[in-house]
Each structure stands twice: as C-alpha cells, then as structure tokens.
Amino acid sequence: MFQKVAIIGGGAAAATLVSELLERRTPKPLHLTWFAGSAQPGRGVAYGTPSDRHLLNVRAASMGMFVSKPGGFLEYAQAANPNVKGSDFLPRRLYGDFLRSRVDAAVANARQFGHDINLVPFCAQSLVPSSEGVTIGYGEGEEAHADAAVLAIGSLPPRPLAGVQDAALASGRYVTDPWPYLAAAESDDRPLRVLVIGLGLTAVDVVLELAARWPRARFTALSRHGHLPEPHLAAASAPSDDGNDLAEQMRDDPNIRTWLHRLREATDNADDWRTVVDSMRPHTQGLWQELPDGEKARFLRHARWAWERARHRMPPKVASSVASLEKAGRFERLRGRMQAVSLRIDGDLDVVRRETGGDATVTETYDIVIQTVGLNTDTLRTEHTLMRQLVIDDLVTPDRMGLGLAAQPDGHLLDGDGKPRGNLFAIGSLLRGALWESTAIPEIRKQAQAVANMLVK
Ligand SMILES: Cc1cc2nc3c(=O)[nH]c(=O)nc-3n(C[C@H](O)[C@H](O)[C@H](O)COP(=O)(O)OP(=O)(O)OC[C@H]3O[C@@H](n4cnc5c(N)ncnc54)[C@H](O)[C@@H]3O)c2cc1C
Fold this sequence. Notes:
Elements: E1 4-8, H1 12-22, E2 31-35, H2 72-80, H3 92-110, E3 116-120, E4 124-130, E5 133-138, E6 142-146, E7 148-151, H4 166-170, E8 174-175, H5 178-184, E9 193-197, H6 201-213, E10 218-223, H7 244-252, H8 256-268, H9 273-279, H10 281-290, H11 293-311, H12 316-327, E11 331-343, E12 349-355, E13 361-366, E14 368-371, H13 385-392, E15 412-414, E16 420-426, H14 432-435, H15 441-456
Parallel strand pairs: 1-2, 1-7, 2-3, 7-16, 8-14, 9-10, 9-14, 10-11
Antiparallel strand pairs: 4-5, 5-6, 11-12, 12-13, 15-16
The structure holds flavin-adenine dinucleotide.
C-alpha cells in the first residue's frame, strides 16, 4: 500500500479520486497531497461554467461520482428539486456544485478514518519518480515527497492551429481557448461577425452563449464536413442489447472498414441507431486495445469525426436552440479547412479557407475567430510546464498517436523505456491512447476506483 499519495489536477477526475480514497477504510491512514491549482478545486474545465445554457451531455441518472453509486448526482439534484428526472440533461454548473459538495464531505469525513489531506492551491511544475517515491516541485521552488503520484490533469492547453499569424494571435481577436474567453465575454450590441473553427459540442456551447450575450452577432462554423453533433433522443432509450455479439464480430476482424460495415448493419436493423452506439460503450476500450496501430491511425484520419458526432451528442434543448439560430439566419455552417488567419490594418481578421473537396480558396473577414477543435492530448508538443518537464527528462513516453501518454490500460504510466512505473499513474484524457474512451464521468469514475484499489492494496 502507498500511504503518501500525491494527486495532481483540479478537475472532476482528481476530485473523484480524492473522494474515492478519503472515503475508504484502509489498513493504515492515508496522507494525500492534492496539487489542485486552486483553492476550490473540483469543477475543472467542463463544470466551471456559470451559464445554465451549458448542459450536461449525459443524462442525470448516469452522472454519479462513484461506481458504487451511479445515481448519486440524481439524488443530489432531486433533493433540491423533486421534479428532476433521471433522463434530464441538467446544467453543468449544478454538476460542479455536486462535485464540490462531495469533495467537501469527503474531506470533512476523512478524519474518521484517520486520513489527512493537504490541499496545495498551486500547479505541480515538476515531478521526478524514483524507486523511493516521487518528488514534486511547485510554487516558488518548493518540493513535496510522496510514495506515489496520480496525474489527473485533463487535456493539455489548446495550441493555435497552423496558419494563424502571430499578429492575429497577439491581437486577442483569435481565441485559442474558448472557456476563459466565454467567462470574460461581456454583452455587446454590435453586429459582430464571429467564426468558430470546429463543430463539436464546445463549438455549440460557444455559439449559444455568445448569441445570447451578443444579440446582433452572426456566427459561422467551419469544419471539414460541416455537420453538427447528433442530438440525443428526448426520451431515454436503453441500448439495443448488451453489445456482446457485435463486439465479438468486431473482435474477429479488427479493421476499421469491417467495423464500420458491422456498425452500419446493426444500426440499419435497430429502431434507432443511437441504441447501437450506446451498446458499444462498455466494449469500446477493449476493442480499441485490439486494434492494430495502422487501423487506429486510419480511424483517427477517416472515421473519428463521424464516431465523435454520433457518440458525443447534444441534449435535445441545445439542438433546438441551434436550429432556431440557423432558422433566424444568425448561424451558418461551412465545409472546409482554415488555411490562414491574418490581422488586417483595421484590426479585423482575414481568414483564408479551402473548401472541402476542391482546391478553391476563399478569404473572408471576421471580427472574432474562436478555435474549438477538440481535446489537445499531444504531450510531445505542449507548453504545459509539468508535461514538458516529464517528456524532456524522458520520465514518461508520449503516446505514438498524440493521444496522451503511453500507459497500461489500468493507468500505470510507462517510463522512457516503455516499462510500467510502479508508482506513477494517470486517469482521464491522458489515457486516450491506451483506452480511447477515457474522458467522460462514467469512465473516469471507474478509473478512479481502479487506481484507488491499486494504491491502497
Ligand atoms: C465543455 C465540456 C463539457 C463536458 N460535458 C460532459 C458531460 O456532460 N458529461 C460527461 O461525462 N463528461 C463531460 N465532459 C468530459 C469531461 O472531460 C469530464 O467529464 C471531466 O470534466 C474531465 O475532468 P478532468 O479532471 O479529467 O479534466 P479537467 O476538467 O480538464 O480538469 C483538469 C484540471 O487540472 C488542472 N491542472 C492541469 N495541470 C495541472 C498541474 N500541473 N497541477 C495542478 N492542476 C493542474 C487544470 O487546470 C484543470 O483545472 C465534458 C468536457 C468538456 C470540455
């Protein structure tokens, strides 16, 4: 058992692991050091939004924090409002409140099991694992020691896309990270022209929020295929079956072309295609591990976009708000690829885009361009201080496909020689290369439970 454990990260994953550990009776008391980056951790990127327009994309009944209590969030929400149903898509702000209340309760109860926790409101800046334990650097040259450490840092800060001129970045009109921008955006009555690059759930959140705060603004979204995420059904529908047969057929022939064919067959025979996609959820991590590297690369190049829009769906209310904006002529979608963004003399941005399926380029002018191109998990090319240090010092191995860090499926990180480190773990987005499906609460709570088991066994 590791008695002194360092947990690094300030979001839902770290909060879940801390709570898992503190609520356990262990042979010896635990001493946790939580490098949380803030004094009020838990909400992280997803649940830090104060806007009630930003809804969970998972139904309330499935958002519990612990594997042993998947309905925990629903109970919390119903205690405040008995009309809430398990099939509702509730505000992410409320989920942030839930996470904070669970963490506070776990910290308050820790003493009854003899545990203690030291919350460090700084980011961990360096980490050196050795056979004796781990040494973590933070603050103004301070150090802490632990027997083991867990990285729960979410995805890495977004980097600007290729083609964006430095002057455009420096102008503040090209936004690389939408969340701090949304948090600070004030009401504005000007007829702003806004381009959003990318068309996933974050793009939708950005457009809906700014459309409300900027009533005369018009929004354009640019993506390779120009499709919105699919909507959830209004009523919850159970998965078509346990997915075992389909997963078995896929395992027999692990290549993407066959898999897409099998999926298409199954969805053609289902009442609603979503039930088939959902039936795959418990199998996705195992199937991913069986896929040869070349097939994984093919999936990322050709099928990822289609899978993501089917898997990460919009709540029906969000889908209808977007449809209303489109109908009102305030939101349009374009198919293409951004080639260059430059700052004009008048302070606006010129955006050159190439249209999908052709060579033609078009240049258009916008007031603001906001990049929303999905999670950044490229650990080899990042400005994240801790990750840079770990990679440069060869203490971890970047995933070959840019999907986080090389790791065992159970969360053990691999060292520079590809061997598992006994005392260094990760949960969440950094495990995308090992598991693919590794970012949402239902997966994170399982990982937190499994890592907690390894830490205290
Ligand atoms: C907009 C959005 C909406 C989502 N909605 C849902 C949903 O409805 N349902 C669902 O299941 N999933 C949803 N997700 C998936 C989401 O990723 C997870 O649910 C969860 O929030 C991930 O938490 P995390 O702690 O891994 O990452 P994060 O939320 O990114 O938290 C990581 C935290 O660690 C901090 N950190 C980074 N480096 C350090 C360091 N060196 N030291 C200390 N702290 C550090 C970061 O600043 C950050 O606060 C959503 C994701 C996003 C982005």
